[in-house]
Structure formats: C-alpha cells, structure tokens
Specification:
heterodimer, A: 784 residues, alpha+beta, Beta-Lactamase, Alpha-Beta Plaits, eight-stranded mixed barrel, five-stranded antiparallel beta sheet, 26 strands, 51% helix, 21% strand, B: 211 residues, mainly beta, Immunoglobulin-like, five-stranded mixed beta sheet, 1 helix, 16 strands
Chain lengths: 784, 211
C-alpha cells in the first residue's frame, strides 16, 4: 500500500472514528439530557402539585381553627341535631366561597361523627382512626388524602377546644375538598403535566386530568413502580415519561399521583440537533479528507521524487537534479540526497582513479592499460592497423631497493614516472604494471624506434636520490598486434618474454620473435614462476662430497640447488639464479636451501655421520640485515652448531661491493659460521681486500684444477694460492678434481679439501644414500 | 399550694372502718403528678354541707384555676380586674355564660356533679376548672403526688383521679377499690400516657392548676 494511501486511510479512520464517537456521545448525552429535562419538569410539576395541595390544606386548617373559636358554632354544638346541621351547613357555605371547601364535619374525640355538612358519609364513625391519633400528637391538627365512597378527598382535621385554652379539645372538626377531574385538570394546566391519581390495587385511576383514561397496561406499570421514581411509560408507543409520587395519605389506603409528560418535543429537538450535528460532521469529514489528501500528497510526492532519484543513483546516474525548494524534514532529506549524490559521484571518481591509476606514480595501472589495449585492439581491427606494446623495467632495480631501501626505490620510480609523464602524448599510452615494470603502447608502428629512443633518453641523465646519482638501464621488450598476440594479456605476455630475452641477451631491446626457440622463451617466462616453484617443492638439493686430503675421509658436502620442472625437467641454476637475484626471489631460495641442507645434516648426525654442509649463498643474501640471525636460528632449531655449516660466496659477487658484504660476513663469523670464497681466482680480488674479509676458506676455481698436471702455469697458481692461503690462516679447497693425478698433486701441495667428478658427481638425495653406504668407511664419523 | 388537703371525717356508724389510705399518682414518666384531684365514690355517701366558694377574676386570670366544690355549693364569681370578663362554660354540669363588669359579683349554684371548664370570651387564655363533687372523700395530691385519706368507709368505693391534662380516659381515671388494695392501705396510680401539653399560651409563673 502506498504511503499516500496509508496516510489518507489513517486520516479517514481517525477522523470518521472521532466524528462517529462524538456523534454517539452527543446523541446519547442529548437524549439523556432530554429525558432529564422531562424528568426535571416532572419534578417541578410534582413540587407545584404538592404546594398546591399543601396550600389548600393550610387554608382548611386555618379556617377550621378560626371556625373552632366561633361562638355560634360552640353554641350550636349543644343545640339539637338539626340546628347543628344547619349551622354547619351555613359555615360550610362560607368556607365554600372562601376556600372552595366541600365538606365540614364535626366528630367526637373518639371518632364518632357528631354531625356532617356537604359531602357526608353514611357510616356513623370516621373510618381513618389513625389520622386522629396522628393529629393528637401533632398539636391536635392533621391532614391527609383519603378515598371515601369512591372519591378522593383532601382533608384537614383540627381539634375544637372549649374553652379555647383547654388542653383537651371537645371535638374534632374536619374541613375537606374532593379531588376530582376538574381539580386534576386545573393542576395539569398549571404544571403542564398529565395527572392521574389512583390508589393501591385499583384497576383504574380515580381522578385524571386528561380526557382519556390510562390504559390498564400503563396503570399496571405505574403500580409496579415504587413511589418517588421516574420511569418510561409505554402509552401508544409514544415516548412518555412518568413520575409516581405518593400523596400524604393513610398507611392503610395509600394514594398516588402519576405525573406524566410526553418527551416527544424534547426528542424532536434531539433529532433535529443530531441531524444538524451529522451534517456538520459530514462536512468536517469532507474538509478533513481533502486536507488529508493534500497532506499525504505533499509528503508522498517529494518522497516518490526522492525514491526515483535514489533509484537513479543506484543505476549510477549522479547528475539528477533534486528539488531544493522543499521545506522542513523533506527539505533536509532532499539536501542530504543532493550531498550524498555528489559525495558518491566524487567517491566513485576516486575509486575509478584508484582502480585505474597507480597510487605511487600516478601513472595508469595494469587494469587501465588492459582496458586501453582492448580499446586499441578494437580500433586497430576497425582500421586494419597494428600497434606496438612495449614492456620495460630497470636492470638491477632490486639492488637499488636492497641498498637504498624500498623507500628510495619508490622515489626512483616516482622520479622516472615524472619524466615519463613529461614525454606523454596522444600517440602513446604509458602505464606502470607493477614494481619497476612499465608498459608503453605505441599506436603508430612506424614510430616505435622514435618512441623507444624517447624512453631511453629519459635515463640518459642519472636519477639522483639522496645525493647519489643512479644510472638507470632499461630493458625493453616489444610485441606487435596482431602478429604477437590478439588479446591484451597475450600481447603483454609476449612483450614481457621479449623483455626477458633482451635482458638475457644483454640487449637494450628485443622484439618478440615467434620463430625463436619457443621452448626457451617459454622457459624464460617460467623463471618468473620461481617463487611458486619453491612453494610447489620443485626444488631439489644435490650434494657433492668433499674429501679431506690429509685424513682421506669425506668431511663435507657442497649443496647444489636443482629445479626439476614438472614439464620442462631439469633447469640449470645458471639460468635462474641471476634472475632470482634480480627479482629478490633469491632470499626465498636461499632460505629453502639452508633449511633443506640443515635438515639433511641433522639426519646424518642422527645416523652418527659428521658431514658438514657447504651452502652457496648470494651476495644479495649478505645485504640482508638479519641474514646471520636467521641462519643461526635455523641451526638452533635443529640443535646444530655453527661449525656444521660452511657458507660459500663467489668471489665476483663478493668483490662487487666489499663494504656492503663486510658487516654481514662479520656477523656470521662472530657466530662461528665458516665462510668460504667460491670460484677463487676469477674475481680479480686484491690481496688487500682478501685480507679484510673475515673468511675461513678459499675455494680454488675448477678452471685451475682441471688441467693441473698438464699446465705448469695452473700448477704454479694453485701451488702459490695454497701457500698464500695457508699463510693467511685459511683452509684451501680445490674443486674440479677429475683425475687421480690431480688428486695426488693436490695432496702433494697440501690442499686441505678436494671435490670433483673423480671423487663424486653431485648426487641426488637417493644416490647420496647409496653412495654413503658404499663409502661408509671413508666418511667422517662423530667422534665419541 | 393554697389549698390544703381537706380531710373530712364521717361519724356515721357505717364508717366503722379502716384507718388511713394513701394514694399516690405518678405520671407516665414515673414522676409524681401534683395537684390532681383524687376522690372516692360510693353509694349513699353523705355529702358535706354546701358552701360559698370564691372564684375570682384577678389580673386577667381565674383564681384559683382548680376549684373543688361539693355538690349544691355556690361558686361566687368576683371580677377584681378593671376590665370586663365574659365567663362561659359549655360543660354539661353547668352550661352558662355571662358578662361580669369590673367589681361585679355573681353567684352560681353547682347543682350537678362533674367537671366544669371555664373560659373567658374576651381573654382566650383564661382557663379554670370547677370539679363539682358528690362525695366527701376528695382532695388534691401534694408535691409528691400523694394524698392521705385518714379513714375510708368499708363500703364499695371507686377511686377517681382527675386533672385537665390527663390524657388517659380523656381527663379521668377511675379504679374500683378492691379488698386487696384496702388491706394494703395504699394504692399507686400510674398514668399510662403522658400528660397533655398546656395550650393557654400565657406566662406560666402562676399556673396553679398545672400542679
């Protein structure tokens, strides 16, 4: 149900409910009030009626008292009966004129009738003796209304005192008047009521003011009601209210008056009032409903507007104008909507910017570039054109990060990006794909050379970071659409392969060539998977034993990493180590190698063999601050001592930056780890440098050892190296021993250790176990 | 009380008799009724000699207001006031009315026993009672409601108590004097109903008949 309809219905229900309730209350109250008015007028009528009768009886009483003092009457009492009768008749005549009296009786004190005038009774005694007793106790006077011979009389009775001051009266005197229809009519006119007077148990009223008698049913109702109550009298189905009162009468013969008034007039007024109220209520209802319709509309219309705006916002339209002229809460809501719309649009813009831009360099990112590529592919297809995709990165960027810190590496990237942005124009699109890898799209293939030259020219000038002028060298790989790829990803992949080829071949740039060894290029891409390869357990360590020449036992093994690719099989370390060093994956690799080697060492120890492991590490490892601590930790984990491991670093790597390696080497040395310089003799290290290095061992490069017995120069070099090393307190290891003669010569020259194919090839773990079993006697044992 | 209790001794032989008889009259509330006429009636009783008994009109009152008169005696009305009175009686024993100018005297012989209520037509509040007695044994009760008869004859007697305000029997109560009562020498009459109220509406400092 719509809000508009709900508001409208709510108003409808509330207003009509309130009106209905009001009408009901007013109607019933007015009706009750009408009845009450009738009852009130009945009560007033009662009062008037009572007062009328009271005043009449008062008059009778006064008249009787005066008459009682009349000498003539007192004299007449003692005359003969006829005289008394005529005297009473005379007095009654006077009373009739003055007081409208109908009877004048004289009684003995005991109630016997002395004489009567006017209305008389045939019985010789006054029939209501209680009245006499009551009057005696009320200073010899009383009043009542009595039925007598089928009529109703109001009478006053007073004592007749002779002498006047006597305590006891001589006679009773009664003055009275018949209450007949005429009297009732008079009272009825006076009180505007219909008056009926009746007694107990009588089936008809004695006296009535109306022409019509009361129906017997109504009289029965009246009989049933207690005196003093008002009630509804069903006469002819009209609305008639009645008040039953008991007149001052004898206990034995109670007399009641029924005061009746029709409430027709009042009910008519109520009816007309109700009708008017109903009309007013109806008009009010109509007006309210029109108002409710307006109100609900004024609320619902802007809300609907806002709803449609919200729906548009949901669809991504942020430019809908929202009415600003609304007042109150809706105005606030509307403004909030406007603000929200703007905020969402702004944020969307930010998100879009972040999604398509590299936050570091503000260049477009990979996503953006892929979008651009897709767009370019479409355009190129339409125009039957081609375009070029270049990927390039810095050679040795990892070194910059390692030596100067990632923060400075970022600064280099930012500075370079700034230069790139300056070169930007319509014909090209530039993006940073990640790390130091950038991409360039050249829409016009004819401009490839020019654009690449442009890019290269960016690094003509070194980038200066913290007063260090860094020479940057770029390797660029290029692929052409549609020749080298038909999708954005394949274009990027082929360009990347081209870049690796350029790197491998030491060239500035290379085009992707399909014709080229597909296998090798594929493998080049695989090198990028090195990290995952380590995790996927594709790496294996091979071990080449080293012989202690003096003791003629094998004391060491050199650990050599091998990559067995599930598809391509054995991959030579030379192919991926340098790349690993460039990408930083070398750390992970070294970590894996050290762990694996130490595990092996531990197993030998457990088997009682004392075989130390020599592990090749990269110069990159040495730049790692916590390298030494890491190695030590790994040793401790396996309860191995520092003496169980020898770390080998190639001379050329070491000599590139002696100062940098020095602290790491010293830290390792201090821990007791032996250090060996690998491939010694190929790195042009000076004696002075060698002296500074905290190494324990020199490993003479195999190129000198292999032709030892044929070449006198090599012999001299080896001999002097051994002597020199020994003089410096170093151990000497010869590698590349391939003949017994070479072994003999080395022994002769006092070389400490030897390794080579003659002694053993590098062995896979399985072969090693077998080899150990065969040579167990010649293997160093843990001395007890 | 100006009237002392009168005791009349009869010297006739048939009165050889009981000595002393005490009558006590009590009101319904138990208090003694003073000033009530107590009389004993029997057949063939010797009446006292007729007398002249004064009944004055003084200071717009009858004085006395209760007069006990033996049958056949003469009541002497004397108007001592400076105004005319109009004395009347509608009572059966003596029904008469006359004007009595100031200083005038009028005699009336009471020939019938009974109660005579007197009024004055000019002064409504004036009220007096004459009890005409056909017996020699009578008197008014004292403050304590007592009256003592020193000797009563042994014949059959009826005791009558009368007072204007007695409601019982409309002003008169009578009782036959039984043997038991005689032997006890005393009787207490207790009224059943309370006294009638006074109606004369005059200052009450000398309303002797009320007591």
């Amino acid at each position: 149900m719509s809000l508009r309809l709900r508001i409208f219905l709510l108003f409808l229900v509330l207003i009509s409910g309130a009106l209905g309730f009001t009408l009901f209350i007013v109607n019933s109250n007015v009706r009750d009030a009408g009845d009450q008015r009738v009852f009130d007028s009945l009560a007033v009528g009662h009062k008037v009626f009572q007062e009328k009768i009271d005043s009449q009886l008062d008059n009778f009483e006064i008249a009787a008292k005066i008459l009682g003092k009349e000498d003539a009457l007192r004299e007449a009492i003692h005359d003969d009966s006829l005289s008394l009768k005529t005297a009473l008749g005379n007095f009654l005549n006077r009373l009739r004129q003055d007081y409208d009296a109908d009877l004048l009786w004289l009684l003995e004190l005991d109630g016997a009738i002395t004489e009567q005038a006017g209305v008389s009774t045939t019985s010789g005694e006054f029939p209501y003796m209680q009245l006499l007793d009551r009057a005696e106790s009320q200073d010899w006077s009383g009043r009542t209304i009595i039925p007598l011979d089928g009529h109703i009389y109001e009478i006053a009775i007073v004592g007749l005192f002779v002498p006047i001051s006597a305590p006891l009266p001589a006679h009773w005197m009664i003055i009275g008047k018949a209450l007949d229809d005429e009297v009732a009519s008079e009272l009825g006119e006076l009180t505007e009521l219909d008056i009926h007077i009746f007694g107990d148990g009588d089936s008809a009223a004695w006296v009535k003011s109306a022409v019509d008698s009361l129906p017997s049913a109504s009289l029965a109702t009246a009989h049933a009601q207690p005196a003093g109550t008002g009630f509804r009298l069903g006469i002819d189905n009209t609305n008639t209210l009645a008040l039953k009162i008991r007149l001052e009468s004898e206990e034995s013969h109670p007399v009641y008056a029924l005061l009746i008034k029709s409430d027709q007039e009042v009910q008519d007024q109520v009816q007309s009032l109700t009708t008017r109220l109903f009309f007013v209520g109806f008009v009010a209802l109509l007006v309210s409903l029109v108002g409710a319709a307006f109100l609900s509309n004024s609320i619902a219309r802007p809300l609907n507007l806002l709803v449609s705006v919200a729906q548009k916002i949901g669809r991504g339209e942020y430019s809908t104008s929202i009415p600003a002229n609304l007042g109150g809460e809706l105005g606030t809501l509307s403004k909030a909507f406007n603000t929200m719309q703007q905020d969402i649009a702004k944020r969307q813009e930010e998100i879009r910017y972040i999604a398509y831009h590299d936050t570091l360099t503000k260049l477009a990112n990979r996503n953006s570039f892929i979008d651009d590529l897709a767009q370019a592919i479409q355009n190129a297809d339409n125009k039957k054109q081609s375009f070029a995709v270049c990927i390039f990165d810095f050679d040795g960027f990892q070194d910059i990060n390692n030596t100067l810190g990632r923060h400075n590496g970022d600064r280099v990237l930012i500075a370079f990006s700034q230069r790139l942005l300056n070169k930007c124009h319509d014909g090209i699109k530039i993006a940073r794909l990640g790390g130091d890898e950038f991409a360039l799209m050249i829409l016009d293939v004819c401009a490839i050379d020019k654009e690449i030259a442009n890019i290269k020219s960016l690094v003509n000038m070194p980038i200066e970071i913290e007063r260090i002028a860094l020479e940057i060298r770029l390797s660029v790989g290029i692929s052409i659409y549609p020749d080298h790829g038909e999708t954005p990803n394949s274009l990027l992949q082929t360009a990347e392969i081209a870049m690796y080829i350029a790197k491998r071949d030491g060239q500035d740039m290379a085009y992707y060539e399909k014709q080229r060894d597909h296998h090798s290029t594929q493998r080049l891409t695989l090198i990028a998977e090195l990290r995952s390869a380590i995790e996927a357990n594709q790496m294996v360590l091979h071990y080449q034993p080293k012989l202690d020449l003096k003791r003629n036992i094998f004391t060491h093994v050199e650990c050599l990493v091998r990559w067995i690719h599930p598809t391509f099989g054995f991959i030579n370390p030379d192919e991926f180590i340098s790349y690993a060093e460039q990408t930083g994956a070398i750390r992970q690799l070294t970590h894996w190698v050290v762990n694996t080697a130490l595990d092996q060492c531990r197993r030998w120890k457990d088997d009682g063999l004392d075989i130390k492991v020599a592990i090749n590490i990269s110069a990159v490892d040495l730049t790692q601050k916590d390298f030494a601590a890491g190695v030590l930790e790994m040793l401790e984990e396996r309860e191995l001592s520092a003496g169980d491991v020898v770390l080998e670093v190639t001379e050329s790597a070491l000599m590139k930056d002696v100062d940098l390696a020095l602290s790491a080497l010293e830290a390792l040395r201090n821990c007791g780890v032996a250090l060996s310089i690998d491939d010694y003799g190929t790195g042009y290290s000076s004696m002075a440098q060698l002296k500074r290095l905290p190494v324990d061992e020199l490993k003479i490069d195999k190129s000198f050892v292999m032709n030892l017995h044929d070449d006198s120069d090599d012999y001299v070099i080896v001999k002097s190296t051994i002597e020199l090393g020994h003089n410096m307190g170093l151990k000497l290891v010869a590698e590349g021993v391939e003949t017994q003669a070479a072994l003999d010569l080395l022994t002769e020259l006092n070389c400490d250790l030897a390794q080579g194919y003659y002694l053993s090839r590098p062995l896979s773990p399985d072969h090693l176990d077998q080899w150990i079993a065969e040579h167990v006697a010649q293997i160093s044992k843990i001395s007890e | 009380m100006r009237y002392a209790i009168t005791l009349i001794f009869l010297l006739f032989g048939l009165v050889n008799s009981v000595l002393g008889f005490d009558v006590e009259v009590l009101r319904a509330n138990g208090k003694p009724l003073a000033g009530a006429l107590v009389s004993l009636h029997g057949e063939g009783m010797v009446l006292p000699e007729s007398q002249h008994i004064e009944l004055n009109q003084r200071e717009l009152r009858f004085d006395p207001q209760i007069t006990l008169v033996p049958l056949g005696s003469t009541v002497v009305f004397t108007n001592e006031d400076k105004v005319t009175h109009h004395v009347y009686s509608f009572s059966k024993p003596w029904r008469e009315q006359f004007r009595l100018k100031k200083g005038e005297i009028r005699n009336a012989v009471m020939g019938t026993a009974g109660e005579v209520a007197l009024g004055c037509n000019i002064h409504d509040w004036m009220l007096a009672y004459i009890y005409v007695l056909d017996t020699s044994l009578y008197g008014l009760t004292d403050e304590d409601g007592h009256i003592q008869f020193s000797a009563i004859p042994s014949q059959a007697l009826t005791l009558k108590i009368r007072h204007p305000r007695i409601r019982d029997g409309r002003g008169a109560v009578s009782q036959v004097l039984s043997t038991e009562l005689r032997e006890e020498n005393r009787v207490t009459i207790k009224l059943k109903r309370k006294l009638l109220p006074k109606r004369d509406q005059i200052p009450t400092d000398d309303d002797e008949y009320l007591y």
